[in-house]
Model the fold of this input.
Amino acid sequence: MGVYKSEDVDKYTINKSSNSNNNTRSLEDVRNYSSTSAPSSSLPSSTNSKIHKQNISEKKNKNKNIKQIFILSFDALRERKARSALTILMVVVGSALMVALNGMSAGQNAFINKQMSMLAPNVIFVSSGQHGFRGGPQGPPTIVLNSEVVNRIKSLPFVQEVVPSYQGQLQLNAQGNILNSQIIAMDPKKIYLVTPSLELVDGSSIQSNNPTSMLIGDSIANPPGKTTPFVTIGQTVKGTFSYVEQNTGRTKEESKSFVISGIIKPTGNNFIDRSVIINEATGNSLFHKSGKYDQMVVAALSGDYVNAVQQEIIGLYGNNIGVITPKAILQTRQQFQSGNSAFTIAIAFIVLSDLP
Done:
């Protein structure tokens, strides 16, 4: 039996360890190479077969999981038919409600934009006091709109024209047909300052100096839902004004006959389509206004000067006078509708999120 030296034992141990490490590294390299860069054809057939079987098994497991999910879902629907039907119904109704609300909001915005687009961009509406959102005065007027106020505003820079008007309610009688309407007493020719695109039907004429002339909108001449017109051009209409006498407190009536001199074509603007315009002096006498105007329309030189004119008027009269522009009306309406839509949609989201 040979005797081994310690040096030989050490060399043998080192060589054996080195071979073991090399074998381990080679196995790792093969695995890495097979999973990344090496094509399957370069691996042994047994390795390719194992990888292929493993991939097939994983796909089968995924398909089984998806299938199980659908099976469990349909089983739950069968077991709770009433609850499932109600849940589906609530989701459908909630979604339809949200879509309908968005459509209504968009339609209302388009309608208001169309209404405001009929008005000139350079006009300002001035009233005898601050008015609320619904149009009613917030308190008794502290400033009387008379000819002196009209002349003072007309003298302001960047002001093109001032159109004062009286307002009142008349009962119109056309051959036994009765219709109550709001009346505007102003210079009829100045209506183009407010609505430049306004058009009249054939045969119409504007007679500013005729005290019996009456200009009416399409909705007055042809009331919605009626097959026959209420009045036609050249027809005589009797207007009756009811008022309370200050001295006695009794209700009295005053009547006057008018002749329809013109009819405004449909505009899509409810205010214009339902307007009835008579002579300014006639309105002052018939409505017993004593020269106190209800409203003025101030036309700036252009839309760029509207804010400047508005600030000038407020600087003269402060908050004792109502000043509003079509742009401000449009912004207020849009803000109200946006807030209302957001509130309703939020409620719809809450209802949908609370579904079982």
About this structure: The chain has a mean pLDDT of 77.
